[in-house]
Amino acid sequence: MRETEVAIVGGGMVGMTLAIALRRAGIDVAVIDRATPEQVLAPEYDGRASAIAYASVRLLEATGIWAEVAETQPILDIRVSDGDSLLFLHYDHRAMGGAPLGQMVENRHLRLAQARAAAREQVAFVAGSLATLRRGPGAVEIGLKGGGAVHARLAVGADGARSTVRDLAGIGTAGWAYDQTGIVLTVRHERPHGGVAHERFLPAGPFAILPLAGNRSSLVWTERSDLAAAVLELPEGRFRQELAARFGDFLGKLTPLGPRWSYPLGLHQADRYVGDRLALIGDAAHRMHPIAGQGLNLGLRDAAALAEVIVDAARLGLDIGGAQALERYQRWRRFDSIALLAVTDVLNRLFSNSLPPVRLARDAGLAIVNRMPPLKRILVGHARGTAGKLPRLLAGEAL
Ligand SMILES: Cc1cc2nc3c(=O)[nH]c(=O)nc-3n(C[C@H](O)[C@H](O)[C@H](O)COP(=O)(O)OP(=O)(O)OC[C@H]3O[C@@H](n4cnc5c(N)ncnc54)[C@H](O)[C@@H]3O)c2cc1C
Predict the structure, then answer these.
(1) Does 104 contact ligand 1 (Cβ within 6 A)?
(2) What separation in Å is there between the alpha carbon of 390 and the centre of ligand 1?
(3) Which of 151, 247, 290, 299 has its CA 20 to 30 A from that of 384?
(4) Beta partners for 183?
C-alpha cells in the first residue's frame, strides 16, 4: 500500500499539471494512470494540437512546464466566417494590446514537456486502472484492478470524460452527445499562415484551421458522425478533394501529414465537483464542444484553483481533503464552467444550422460585434482566460 497526501487518478494534461504544481509547493502526490508514460508519449496517442489561452500559458510558465515545450506558435489573429459569406469577425492582436491572443501547441509536445517537468519534480507514478474507492473519515483508499492500493487524504478525479472516479463516487452528469465527430489532421501548406487562426462555420459544424510552427496547420473538421466515418475511410485523392473544398486555396497547395484522427463530441457537466475527500477536475468535471478551444484551458483553471485551495489549507494547518477546502474549490470553479459550456453549445447550434433567417441573423451579429471594439475586447478577455477571479498560478504568481 502506497501512502501519499493527494492521489490523482488520471495523468492527462490536466492531472499532470496539478501534480507538478502541488509537488513544487511541497505536497506529496501520486499519479495513477492506466496508460504508461511510454504509451502516452508514443506518436499514435494523440494527434491534436491545443489553443492555449494567455492565462494558461502563465500557469504553464509558473509550473516550469512551458520552458520544456519544444515548439509553439503564437496566435496573432483570429478570423471567424460563416461558410462562403463575406461577413466575418476579425480579432487582430495589434488592436487588442499587442500580445498574442494565445499559443498553439501540439499535444504531443505538451505531454512530453509535462513528463520532463514531472520527472524533475519527482512526481510518483503508479501504473494501474482504478477499481474501487473507499472513503473514511480521515483518508481515502484507491484500489487498483489486479491488486494494489493507494492511500491518501484527498483523491482527485482527473480521469477524463468517462471518469470512473465520478461514477464510483455516485456523482451524476447532465449533458448529451452531439451527432458530430471532430476529424483532426495536420497539413503542410505552400504559403505562411502569418499566425492567423480561422474558424469557418459550415453546415455540418465548425471547420478550424489553427496555425502551427512552420508552414503547417492543425485542422479540426467537424462532420456529422455518420458522414465522418466515410470521410475517414476516403482514399487519399478523394480525401484531398474534400479537404480542399472546405479549406480553400488561400495558403496554396495542401499536403496532409500523418494520419487522420477522430474524436466523438459531447457536452456534460458533473452534478457536483466535490464529494467526501474527493474533487473532480478537467473533462471528468466538464466536457464541451471544441468550437472555442476551451476544454483544456478550463481544466487547467481547475488544476490551478484546486492547487491553490490545497496549498492554502496545508499552510493553515487545515485538512487538505476536508469539506471546507473542497467547497471553496467547487464554488470557485463550477459557475465558470457552466457559463462556458452554455456559450459553446449555443455557438455550435447557431452555426451548424443552414436555415436562411438564422444565417442572416448570425451574419449580422458577427458584423456588429466586429464593429464594436469594446465588446471585442471583452470577448478576447474571456478567450485569453484573463477575465474573472484568477487563481494565483494563472496570474503568473507562485502558489
Ligand atoms: C478535437 C478536439 C480539439 C480540442 N482542442 C482544444 C483546444 O484547442 N484548446 C483547449 O483548451 N481544449 C481543446 N480540446 C479539449 C481538451 O483536449 C480536453 O479538455 C483535455 O484533453 C482534457 O484533459 P484531461 O486531462 O481532463 O482528460 P484526458 O486527456 O481524457 O485524460 C484522462 C487520463 O485519465 C486516464 N484514465 C482514465 N480512466 C482511468 C482509470 N479508470 N484508471 C486510471 N487512469 C484512467 C487516461 O488514461 C488519461 O491519461 C479539444 C478536444 C477535442 C476533442
Answers:
(1) no
(2) 22
(3) 247
(4) 221, 262
Nearest-CA residue for ligand 1 atom 39 is 159
Q: What is the pTM of this model?
A: 0.93
| Residue 40 within a domain | yes
Ligand 1 atom at minimal distance to the Cα of residue 281: 26
Question: Residue 35 belongs to what domain range?
Answer: 2-60+106-175+268-352
Spatial strand order in the sheet of 140-144 = 2-3, 149-152, 140-144, 130-135
pLDDT band at 84 (very low <50, low <70, confident <90, very high): low
Tens of pLDDT, residue by residue over 142-157, are: 999 999 999 999 999 9
- Residues 272-320 have pLDDT tens digits of 999 999 999 999 999 998 887 889 999 999 999 999 999 999 999 999 9
For residue 65, give the C-alpha cell.
512546464
CA distance 21 to 18: 5
Atom of ligand 1 nearest to the CA of 10: 34
Note whether residue 11 is domain-resident. Answer: yes
From the CB of 206, is ligand 1 less than 6 Å away? no
d(CA 328, CA 336): 14
End-to-end CA distance of the chain: 30
Number of domains in the chain: 1
What backbone phi and psi angles, to 5 degrees, belong to 55?
-65, -35
For position 158, which CATH number holds?
Answer: 3.50.50.60
Residue 32 in contact with ligand 1 by CB distance below 6 A: yes
